[in-house]
Amino acid sequence: MIQLLKQIDDQVHHIVYHQEGRILFYREGVARKEQIKNSEDMMEINEESSTVRVPCRNTIVAYRQKTEWIREKVEDGYMRSPFSQSKAIEYRADRRIIQLRMLSAVLVMLSGLLTLTGILPIPGI
Q: Which of 42, 70, 75, 81 could disulfide-link to 3, CB 3.0 to 4.6 Å?
């Protein structure tokens, strides 16, 4: 996910691009602060468009289209912003890390077992 931001006066315009395989998703929005009636406190209002889904022929075409959109917006004055990932994405990333650690542990155990059984020679002996 990539988020682009641009501040105009007291409004922050933002665009979020996301790619899943060959499908692109994007949404635009405006965030601004307004004063609450009969109070000195400020209220933040965030108006977003609905998410637009754009299917492409393949993953590479989708990636190129996304990078083209980002390049155009950066030329218009938008800046990249760090975007906090959703809990589902963080969960998948954590599971992937755990699976890789388990795989490496199994490979180390297998190489140790092969060395003990004499199938895998120990260099220098």
A: 81
Instruction: Quickly count: other Cβ atoms within 10 Å of residue 61's Cβ.
Output: 12
Q: pLDDT digits over 19-40, tens only? A: 888 899 999 989 888 877 877 7
Take residue 23 and report the two structure tokens written for it. Answer: 């499908």
Closest to 49 in 3D by CA, of 8, 84, 15, 5? 15
- For residue 68 the two structure tokens come to 């083209």
Supply the DSSP symbol for 12: E
Judge whether 76 and 70 are in contact, CB under 8 Å. no
Contacts of 58 (CB under 8 A, 6+ apart): 22
Helix (H, G, I), strand (E, B) or coil at 87: helix
Longest Cα separation, the chain = 86
Q: Is 86 helix (H, G, I), strand (E, B) or coil?
A: coil
